[in-house]
Structure formats: structure tokens, C-alpha cells
Design goal:
Bound molecules: the ligand N[C@@H](CCC[C@H](N)C(=O)O)C(=O)O
Number of domains: 2
Family: Belongs to the diaminopimelate epimerase family.
EC number: 5.1.1.7
GO molecular function, one term: diaminopimelate epimerase activity
Largest sheet: 18 strands, mixed
Site (Could be important to modulate the pK values of the two catalytic cysteine residues): 206
Strand content: 35-45%
CATH superfamily of the largest domain: Diaminopimelate Epimerase, Chain A, domain 1
Number of strands: 18
Number of helices: 4
Keywords: Amino-acid biosynthesis, Cytoplasm, Isomerase, Lysine biosynthesis
Radius of gyration: 18 Å
CATH class of the largest domain: Alpha Beta
């Protein structure tokens, strides 16, 4: 038996288990991630956040992000805010502005108060040879009769403007888009509808997860797509689990603001 200590967090209902690498008896495996995230046989979560101390003075921690299917994601907007607020509450740093390193690169949070932070996520890109190789420089494409906007926020996002996101059965249409051959690394999908110049309603189907109550990078992908189609920054994104604010600069530099809270901590024995 392996005993794994965790703290469960959620941000707009997007829940993650935070693990500290130093406290693991052995390197985390994909099987363990699947077992931890399982909603009936494990703790239950939309993913795992693995935090490691780093000797690089420029960073407070290295953050790795795993989906419930055991795959590793380059970035998560909600997961990053949960990890950031965890680092703040657990005293890894007393600075209100710092950097952490993810597979997608550096992200720079500013702690706003005890539950909220604003995260500089870097520049969104509309082209990725790795994630959407057949895409042109504008990232536009068509799939099963729907026009989409590809956006890379470190991880791949396919944002689709629809009339009424609430009328869709995401569980039925999400998997074919996630696994489309257009996206060799699979993709996250956001279905959104503009509410006004500065607001959209969005629902999310995540790569390696399925439908979730919210996604920070999904919200960011949809906000970038909204701005490219005439909307204006900042964009308030109304998700099933609450609202996020996304600032999109002219060069597509994005900042994401929202809350994250701990739920409970514990230990689980895994075979
Ligand atoms: N929940 C997320 C995104 C998590 C990663 C995603 N499933 C992927 O595989 O890229 C968020 O808040 O951004």
C-alpha cells in the first residue's frame, strides 16, 4: 500500500488534488492519478496538481498537472490558481507577486486577497504546429459543420461560438472534437455565446476529463475568440461554476482573474 497525502481544492467547481512531491513515497504514476481522481473508487477530482520545490531562484515551485485519464496537461488556469493559493496559504512564499514554472512555461501570479489571484498567463497563440498542424495563422477551422477558433494557451483550446451553449449535450458532441485528427494532441473544447461586448456564456468539455463546471484556460480560449470576433477586453466568462475575468491585450497577452478555495485534506491508501 502507498499512502498519499493530498489537499483537495476547487475553483468554480473545477476540483483538483494538490500533492507535494517531497511528501510522496515514490514518483507519482498515471495509474495513481487515475485512482486518485476516480469519483467512486478514489477521492474524486478533475485532476492532480503536483508541486515540487525548485533550486531555481526565479521560481517558487514547479507545477505539473495531470488529467483524470492519467495524461499530463501543459497548463490549467483553475489548477494554476489553486496551486498558487495553496503556495500562498502554506507559506512557500510570502511575496504577493512571484513566478511558478509549468510545462507550458512561466506563469506570474499576483495575490489579490485570501481567495483570489490574477495570473499573467503569457501570450495566447493562434497557431501551433504541434497541436493544430493543418491550421493557418488565424487559427480558424471547420469541424462537422461548425466553425471553430483554435487558441493555444500553453494547452490546446478549440472555441466554438454557438447560439445557445445550454442547449447542447456536451457529453455527446465533445469526444469527437477532442479526438478529431485535426488535433494530434487532442483538444479542450469551449462552446460559447456572446452576451455583450464584454461578456460571454461558456460551457467546457476538457481533454482527458469530459464536461467540467469550469476551466480557466477554456474560458481564456473562448474570451480570446470573442475578442477576435469583435468583443472587447476585459471579458467576463459565465461558466456553470461561476465567473472568471479574462483580460486580452492587443498582442493576445492574457491575464486571468478568479478565486480558488481549499475543500479538505486527507490521506488515501492506494494499492
Ligand atoms: N481545468 C483546466 C484545464 C486542465 C487541463 C486540460 N484538461 C488539458 O488537458 O489541457 C483549466 O482550468 O484550465
Amino acid at each position: 500500500m502507498t499512502v498519499i497525502a493530498f489537499e483537495k481544492w476547487q475553483a468554480l467547481g473545477n476540483d483538483y488534488l494538490v500533492l507535494e512531491e517531497d511528501r510522496l513515497p515514490a514518483p507519482l504514476t498515471a495509474d495513481q492519478v487515475r485512482a486518485l481522481c476516480h469519483r467512486h473508487f478514489g477521492v474524486g477530482a478533475d485532476g492532480v496538481l503536483l508541486l515540487a520545490r525548485t533550486s531555481d531562484a526565479g521560481f517558487v515551485a514547479d507545477l505539473r498537472i495531470f488529467n483524470p485519464d492519467g495524461s499530463e496537461a501543459e497548463l490549467s488556469g483553475n489548477g494554476a490558481r489553486e496551486a498558487i493559493m495553496y503556495l500562498h496559504r502554506h507559506g512557500w512564499t510570502d511575496r504577493r507577486q512571484f513566478s511558478i514554472r509549468t510545462v507550458a512555461g512561466e506563469i506570474r501570479p499576483t495575490i489579490l486577497d485570501e481567495t483570489r489571484c490574477r495570473v499573467d498567463m503569457g501570450r495566447a497563440k493562434l497557431h501551433s504546429a504541434k497541436d493544430f498542424p493543418s491550421g493557418g495563422p488565424d487559427g480558424r477551422g471547420e469541424l462537422a459543420g461548425r466553425t471553430f477558433q483554435f487558441v493555444s494557451i500553453g494547452n490546446p483550446q478549440c472555441a466554438i461560438a454557438v447560439e445557445d451553449p445550454d442547449a447542447l449535450d456536451l457529453g455527446a458532441i465533445g469526444p469527437d472534437i477532442e479526438h478529431s485528427p485535426l488535433f494530434p494532441n487532442r483538444t479542450n473544447v469551449s462552446f460559447y455565446a456572446p452576451l455583450d461586448e464584454h461578456a460571454i456564456r461558456a460551457r467546457i468539455f476538457e481533454r482527458g476529463v469530459g464536461e467540467t463546471l469550469s476551466s480557466g484556460t477554456g474560458a481564456t480560449g473562448a474570451a480570446v475568440a470573442h475578442v477576435l470576433r469583435g468583443g472587447s477586453s476585459p471579458v467576463t466568462v459565465r461558466l456553470d461554476g461561476g465567473e472568471l475575468e479574462v483580460e486580452v491585450e492587443d498582442d493576445l497577452h492574457v491575464n486571468l482573474t478568479g478565486w480558488a478555495l481549499p475543500v479538505f485534506r486527507g490521506e488515501i491508501d492506494l494499492p
